[in-house]
Design a protein that fits this description.
Number of helices: 10
Strand content: 25-35%
Distance between the termini: 43 Å
CATH topology of the largest domain: Immunoglobulin-like
Strand order of the largest sheet: 5-4-8-2-1-14-17-16
Shape: globular
Number of domains: 3
């Protein structure tokens, strides 16, 4: 180991930059924004030159990964993935993020759309701290847009299968907060922060509110290239592999990430980075500020990642970063990045919280789903597989879980919410959500494990990962796959478990 409410904000419309006047208006905007007497070069806004977006560059080869997972995992059937090329400047003194986001966007649906919807998840957490969208361009032409709460609605028609090139300029102040995006006196962290395409489903655009419980994100995978410019003494953690370059009194950290569900990052001038590698070559990096039990944390993380690599399938990225933050819910996971609460890491008396987040990399992030309508599919899966691969006696562990649920399930006040087929919208408390969608769902997967037998169940897990990595899976997909590995029809099994408000007995 080396140290090394569902509130809706007022509408905002944008009419920007036309033909030859585009550059002039942009410079005039910058003049006003920074308070200069004369127009300035756009590059000065970021202190370093902005990258030139070249279409061929957006399709560069993916970075080297720890293993050749292409032979083990399927790639998404719909191609190409959307390409995000983002330049970010961090104003450390004022905790402000300024960015220009270039998106090579493909309409991967069977329908033409008169508008394109992006999500602004940052706007959900603090009504007084919203991301300001300064302009939107489509294929270098001005477009109208509206910001309504967490929606960025771009007025542009796109045909089915068509590809467009978009630019979105944004700015946000990062508040002192222990949420998915927040800061303290030493660092900032930004998860569920950047504008991201909304998923278009059978009922239209997924524009559900961001709920306070569970993982309320329905996301497709995409490719990211992100440049983050900071003062030279700052260290940046983020999704993907990174390269650092010093430019004067700034450092530019460039991340490349292929087939990821989101991009998260954290910045501090106080980080120490400690690392460990798994036998298959995946690197785990711990970004920490406090005096932590570093060896214990990294050892547990490596053991958990290794167990899943050996039993389920290789981790498809080169690295996983664990970042010390302030988190009211102990931890939050994103692609390649886990934000973990500082107090929890300092004590580290219950490694299961960190282990659960690592397992979520497989069943909540690499394999996507609809965690609003079918939370059990990711939450219960992660909890049970953690017990299955880590506990010496899985049956005794599940017996203890069952005994606890005999009393706690009755405490879920609304009886109908005790069903696994309960949407996230119905839960008013994180406690009720956890009891049903984590604990009760884990018991269902244990019963399925006993019903199928160890060999068939483990084969199911491996095939589930191989088939649905980087995609979004539905309960119907999973049930059909489980049936193909079972000697009996599982239709009645799932129908009963998903609909009952009772606690079935253990096998």
């Amino acid at each position: 180991m080396n140290a090394k409410s569902d509130g809706r904000l007022p509408k905002k419309s944008g009419r920007m930059l036309k033909n030859g006047g585009k550059i002039l208006l942009f410079c005039l905007f910058l003049t006003w924004f920074v308070g200069c007497d004369e127009p300035i070069d756009a590059n000065l806004f970021f202190d370093v030159p902005l990258p030139t977006v070249v279409f061929s560059d957006l399709y560069s080869e993916p970075p080297e990964v720890a293993v050749d997972y292409a032979e083990q995992l399927t790639t998404p059937e719909i191609s190409p993935l959307n390409e995000y090329n983002i330049s970010i400047e961090y104003d450390a003194e004022n905790r402000i993020i300024r960015g220009i986001q270039s998106v090579l966007y493909t309409n991967r649906t069977d329908f033409s759309h008169d508008e394109i919807v992006f999500r602004l998840p940052f706007n959900a957490w603090n009504p007084e701290e919203n991301m300001d969208i300064l302009y939107v361009l489509v294929d270098s032409e001005e477009v109208d847009f509206e910001v309504i709460y967490t929606e960025l609605i771009i007025q542009h028609r796109i045909e089915a299968g068509a590809t467009i090139h978009m630019h979105i300029q944004f700015e946000a102040h990062i508040p002192i907060s222990a949420a998915r995006t927040g800061s303290n006196m030493t660092s900032i962290w930004a998860g569920a922060f950047l504008p991201v395409e909304a998923v278009f489903g059978s009922q239209g655009w997924h524009i559900e509110p961001f709920y306070t419980v569970g993982r309320p994100f329905i996301l497709d995978t995409a490719n990211y290239t992100v440049e983050i410019t900071t003062p030279i003494n700052h260290i940046v953690a983020g999704t993907g592999t990174k390269v650092e370059n010093i430019l004067g009194d700034h450092i530019v950290t460039t991340f490349s990430a292929q087939s990821v569900r989101d991009f998260a990052f954290a910045i501090s001038e106080n980080y120490t980075v400690s690392s460990i590698s798994t036998p298959l070559g995946s690197e785990i990096n711990l970004y920490h500020i406090s005096a932590l039990p570093v060896e214990a944390i990294l050892t547990i993380a490596a053991e958990t990642l290794s167990a899943f690599e050996e039993e389920i399938g290789a981790y498809p990225y080169a690295q996983l970063s664990i970042v010390e933050t302030d988190m009211i819910n102990y931890s939050e996971g994103f692609s390649n990045v886990i934000f973990v609460d500082s107090e929890y890491l300092r004590n580290f008396s219950d490694p299961s919280i960190l282990c659960a987040e690592i397992i979520n990399q497989w069943f909540s992030i690499i394999i996507g789903s609809n965690p609003i309508e079918e939370a059990w599919l990711s939450a219960g899966f992660s909890r049970f597989t953690h017990m299955l691969l880590h506990d010496i006696d899985t049956h005794n562990s599940m017996a203890a879980e069952h005994m606890e649920l005999q009393s706690t399930l009755d405490s879920v006040d609304i009886v109908e919410n005790r069903r696994l087929a309960t949407p996230l919208t119905n839960y008013a408390s994180a406690r009720d959500y956890f009891i049903v969608q984590h604990q009760k769902a884990a018991l269902m997967f244990y019963n399925l494990y006993v019903e199928m037998g160890t060999e068939n169940f483990m084969d199911l897990l491996r095939e589930y990962y191989r088939l649905f990595a980087f995609q979004r899976v539905s309960s119907a997909d999973f049930i059909a796959l489980a049936n193909s590995f079972s000697e009996v029809d599982l239709a009645s099994f799932f129908s009963y478990w998903l609909s009952t408000t009772e606690l079935p007995t253990l096998p």
